[in-house]
């Protein structure tokens, strides 16, 4: 991945739910139109998985001590050289300079552990009405996804680890959809590792066959992969389960 230009917003570390989170600093001038309509960092939302596919939401934050599915980990402004008519690829690159690090500050930065979890990050941009008065913010939200829904989050998010509880650990259904291990599943993530080179179909298969058998608890196993920056990729190994 090419180096992405930093967004034009300062970031600071604050406590969110008892853990550190990376959030954008408040606007330098009170009432800055760039932040018009933005949610507070550290706030919570109760949205469905379908609602996360929309570019914006009109829903209001909810009390984090009650049912909620998303935590706002950061709010930032678009870089000065971008606006909402800029290519979406450039907007996504700007968002990625903020959202993944913000999530990492809350749940941990271990990419292999993240791959073995169902934590995902989402972002929303202002509504068209908010954009029309100068809103330039985007937010970053973290949630846990099953195959058909977002799960209810605890007040304090469970950090990544090698032994994650079922409500955040990644499992796979019989029709090969990722879900939490608290949901009905056939395969459970047992291991993840980095493999060198390009993730061609044959290279991934060789890497999985070489490494996965020593890290699964079943005779057969499932594997998946994800490309990452640099000349390497992640391979996940899954054990067959009785559930």
Which bin fits the share of residues in helices? 10-25%
For the secondary structure, the number of strands is 11
What can be said about the biggest beta sheet? 5 strands, antiparallel
Query: What is the number of helices?
Result: 5
Radius of gyration from the CA trace?
A: 19 Å
Lateral strand order in the biggest sheet: 8-7-9-11-10
Low-confidence stretches: 1-30
Mean pLDDT: 88
Structural class label: alpha+beta
How many domain modules?
Answer: 2
DSSP strand content: 25-35%
Order of helices and strands: EEEEHHHEHEEEEHEE
Shape: globular
Distance between the termini: 38 Å
Describe this structure in words.
The protein is α+β, with helices and mostly antiparallel strands and 243 residues long. It has helices at 88-96, 99-107, 111-115, 128-132, 201-211; strands at residues 11-16, 19-24, 44-45, 70-77, 119-124, 137-144, 170-172, 178-180, 187-196, 221-228, 232-240. Helix content is 16%, strand content 28%. Mean pLDDT is 88; it is low at 1-30. The protein is built from five helices and eleven strands, in the order ββββαααβαββββαββ. The chain folds into two domains: 11-144, no CATH class; 186-240. A hairpin with a 5-residue loop joins strand 7 (170-172) and strand 8 (178-180). The strands form three sheets. The chain has a five-stranded antiparallel beta sheet with strand order 8-7-9-11-10. A four-stranded antiparallel beta sheet has the order 3-4-6-5. It has a two-stranded antiparallel sheet with strand order 1-2.
